[in-house]
Amino acid sequence: xxxxxxxxxxxxxxxxxQREGISLSLTDKLKIVxxxxxxxxPFIEGGWPGANPKDVQFFWQLKETPLKQAQVVAxxxxxxxxxxxxxxxMLKAILAANTHWVTxxxxxxxxxxxxxxxxxxDENLLMIQETIEYLISQGRNVIYDAEHWFDGYLxxxxxxxxxxxxxxxxxxxxxxxxxxxxGTLPHQITTIVEQVIARLxxxxxxxxxxxxxxxxxxxxxxxxxxxxxxxxxxxxMVQGTINGYGERCGNANLCxxxxxxxxxxxxxxxxxxxxxxxxxxxxxxxxxxxxxPDDHAPFVGRSAFAHKGGIxxxxxxxxxxxxxxxxxxxxxxxxxxxxxxxxxxxxVIAKAKxLxxxxxxxxxxxxxILERLKTLExxxxxxxxxxxxxxxxxxxxxxxxxxxxxxxxxQVHCDILSAGQMPEANALATIKVVVDDxxxxxxxxxxxxxxxLDKALRKALVQFYPQIAQFYLTDYxxxxxxxxxxxxxxxxxxxxxxxxxQRWTTVGVSSNIIDASYQAVVEGIEYGILLSKDEIKxxxxxxxxx
Length: 546
Hints:
The chain is an alpha/beta fold. About 40% of the residues lie in helices and about 20% in strands. The strands form 4 sheets. The chain has an 8-stranded parallel beta barrel with strand order 1-2-3-4-5-6-7-8, surrounded by 8 helices. It has a 4-stranded antiparallel beta sheet with strand order 14-15-16-17. A 3-stranded antiparallel beta sheet has the order 11-12-13. The C terminus is likely disordered.
């Protein structure tokens, strides 16, 4: 690893929370900041104290439960035009947050000064310098975010440089180049950063010289590439968010940026043990913001190290380097073998190994599993997306699938009640189950037929398998397979279940959507029971730290 340190600055709690559809509670923010602190992120932007009561409470709460190593940063704009910094209530709220570090953003683009702030170019320079001077006089260290820096420099380079000089005169420790609109490309980043270093005469190796950072947005799909271009040009702080969350198209994704900088370019970002927390934290934070994890995200996605083609699987079994650019475990991910109608015997054997089963190509069971797989996928099943169902199929072929319960039959009754203009579906499910020669009849209501069926089955089984009380459905997907058949079309249902720590997906197919749902629900509960009893070892599980 290189001796050059890259300072990571996470703004998930502020800039990331501006993504459409994200709303973090105070508890959410406190849980996330603890995870980022444990992962070794040096700077964590907590929010804008005074902008809303939640951010005020967040900073106060951290005084009661301080972090282990991270510096929590308060965020704010420069003082208002023609107002003394010490008299600006906005800055008083920043000081009340009692953080050692404060990030102040100011205008770099003359267009924004004139059209946005409605003030003069000279007044904007004073706003930058005097705000930083005041905060430093109150014992704070200041990071200066040069908002719209690259657009401002391209439009009026001389004035843009004056804004940075104002920040330097004020005493800022860091100057951060912000691609606020996300429209700059990597080659422009390189050229502008190198020009700024030269024109300001910065010697970045001197201890008393301000250091440089970069804050990029992903509107052109180049946020990570832009940040890397900045680092290669001399920048030593990168700002970004976990999973690339942020307004519009998002911010630089730290889950992609950190491994590229550390594993590919050799920079010092995190300790090796901390780096292994990247994938679990990516998924944990996606749960906190109530967004499904991106399975195809670089490095941390479930599919990032998934192998489907038989030739690929055979090669990876011999040497993982043939189809993997890094060892997945170094960033906390894992290799997955995907099974589908394109699979070969290598996929089946590799998948069996994840279950602790040692199969050989000469074993006729391997061929039987493969043929069964292809027959079912021809009927519409999709085991690539429902690996829990495939593992149960494999256990059946090996005569190792336990009979936990037997469904004798079920009925579902559904009424559509109209309340004003909004119809409300009430469903009643009756199910008959046999467990250990005991026959049970249970009834449950739900807000739809699948919900009622799921509740009735759980109600019948929970007295035998109390762990079921921890299970819940996290996703329900329906796909019409042959739409030209109208209401007679076959339907595929995928159901994702969870016990709070792991997630697993099961599949059902039928021309009756209730029957397809029933298949997926039943297998989901069966798989969860086996999982909780440690009688199944799944490499397809998605583990979280929640």
